Amino acid sequence: MESDPSRSARPRRTTGAVSGIVAAVAGLASAQLAAAAAGRPEASPVTAVGGAVVDLTPVAVREWAIRLFGTSDKLVLGLGILVVVAAVAVGTGLLAVRHLPAAIAVTGGFGLVGALAALSRPEASWQDALPSLVGALVSAGVLYLLVTAGRPRPAGAPPGGAGSMDRRGFGRLVVAVLAASAGVGLGARRLGAHGSADATASRARFVLPRPTVPAPPVPAGADLRVPGLGPFLTPDQDFYRVDTALVVPRVDADTWRLRIHGEGVARPQTLDLRQLLARPVVEHDITLTCVSNEVGGPYAGNARWLGVRLGDVLRGAGVRPPSEGGPADQLVARSVDGMTIGTPVETVMDGRAALLAVGMNGRPLPFAHGFPVRMVVPGLYGYVSACKWVTELRLTTFAAYDAYWVRRSWAQQATVKTQSRIDTPRPGADLAPGRVPVAGVAWAQHRGIERVQVRVDGGPWQEARLGAADGVDTWRQWVWPWEATPGPHTLEVRATDGTGAVQTGVRTGTVPDGATGWHAVDVRVRALGGGGGLSAGADRQ
User: Fold this and answer.
1) In this structure, are strands 476-484 and 390-396 parallel, antiparallel, or unpaired?
2) 3-state secondary structure 266-335
3) Interatomic CA distance for residues 169 and 189, integer angstroms
4) pLDDT tops 80 at residue 155
5) pLDDT tens, 482-506?
6) CA-to-CA distance for 371 and 290, rounded, in angstroms?
7) What is d(CA 161, CA 176) in angstroms, rounded to the nearest whole number?
8) How far lies 286's CA from each of 377, 446, 448, in Å?
9) What torsion, rounded to 10 degrees, do the Cα atoms 365, 368, 369, 374 define?
10) Residues 215, 357, 312, 401: is their CA dihedral positive or negative?
11) Whether the Cβ atoms of residue 287 and residue 376 lie closer than 8 Å to each other
12) Of 168, 175, 163, which Cα lies nearest the Cα of 26?
């Protein structure tokens, strides 16, 4: 009886696919262990390739991803990379059962891609290529072992013959390799945790200094306590996070250093945390805003920051702003992961509360928000001011150097635009007729908010009641009592800043220096005696 070639090929395809996946798992686990052993978790292949993808992604695509996935964009990117790896692994395994040398070459090629991605990262050294190369070597070895072991026995070959095994034997080998990979992965996790233990311990030991100039209490009435409106001060866990770090740096405060150098620095310095905090420590409430924040978006947060004045630190190094004859007009801050952010020297030395912050809302900075030291500059978008995990301040000029985001189509300088947002009612809300509180926040850091107005269905603007002002560097809450009538309605809001300038209604996107336009929300008010339930509606931004 003749055999069916397609039926005999199926086990080989299954063997190849399984071999490819298992080899990839073994390689990734080994690479992770190598990265952890080197104390460079950012050099692991998934993280390195993810960082390279972020760097190469067009601005429009990146902004789309932030709008769609929010602060989960990094998780989605990591999962996407793993899906691609799995697909390639299956394809490589299928190739291996037909032409093993070619499959081994493909595996080595992917190891080379990971190595080049790691070397392309800021602050990379040649050692950062090793995890990907180690992973490729292990993956190639496991692929060879499994594909060779999984080959069908030649006709008439005795059981247990060399170079092949039965299905049970192959299955046991697969389980053994997966178990070993799991052990390696667990070892990498523990080694990585041990490597960050010093940083965690240093944060636990760190006691915030008592401010020389404490912030006054938040004024009574600043927090309007309207249902659906968030608190005046944003809790740490709710504060937005938008950055490129796929792995949050965990910096040991005991070994942290800040280097200050460059044009016009009369006294170059390298400071440790104790030396930095020997200066007067101040406390200030400041609202931060991300330039990727769409009109009505969530990427704004208000916190009480503790730190030293950046202007004092620069003057201590002999720096003069351009208005006093200083040669440098740009301060380039560099983070521990190599991110660069360029800030106008004149701005950080004009007397505003530009800080090298160590505390947030009465506690040491969370790791995700820059522990042990980050920059905070009121009035500027984060991409030109809010360097986290800062380790270097270099004085230069805007003509001589473009920081990370400037090289990716964003403006060199970007003052926060006047913005206002409706937080309640939510888009698509189904409301009962009668009085409805329409409330939200408005911000124009370092100019302040003097007025907020709301209108319904394009009608006349109505004055909202403002919460008490906590200086000019924070947002202000507002509320307007609306006598809602049945039917669909569109609510819009606009603000006037402390200079008298009214927020523009002209709609622009976030690129190159921040979005503009009025936030609009569509809602529906039920007819008198009507039933409940959600109705269609939209946040029109």
Assistant:
1) unpaired
2) CCCEEECHHHHCCCCEEEEEEEEECCCCCCCCCCEEEEEEEEEEHHHHHHHCCCCCHHHCCCCCEEEEEE
3) 30
4) no
5) 999 999 999 999 999 999 999 999 9
6) 19
7) 20
8) 8, 9, 11
9) 80
10) negative
11) no
12) 175
> What does each C-alpha distance from 89 to 20, 83, 94, 144, 314 come to in angstroms?
5, 10, 9, 13, 52
Distances (CA, A) of 50 to 77, 87, 113, 114, 390: 7, 17, 12, 10, 22
User: Which position has the token pair 């042990």?
Assistant: 372
How far is the C-alpha of 174 from the C-alpha of 184, rounded, in Å?
15
Angle at which helices 5-37 and 130-149 cross, to 10°: 150
- Helix and strand numbers, DSSP H then E, in the chain: 10, 19
| pLDDT per position as a tens digit, 441-486 | 999 999 999 999 999 999 999 999 999 999 999 999 999 999 999 9
Alpha helices in 345-436 (DSSP H): 345-348
Cα-trace Rg, the chain = 29
CA trace torsion 259, 262, 266, 267 (10° rounding): 10
Sheet holding 430-431, edge to edge: 430-431, 519-525, 487-497, 449-456, 462-463
Rounded to whole angstroms, how far apart are CA atoms 336 and 371?
Answer: 11
Stretch (H or E) spanning 450: strand 449-456
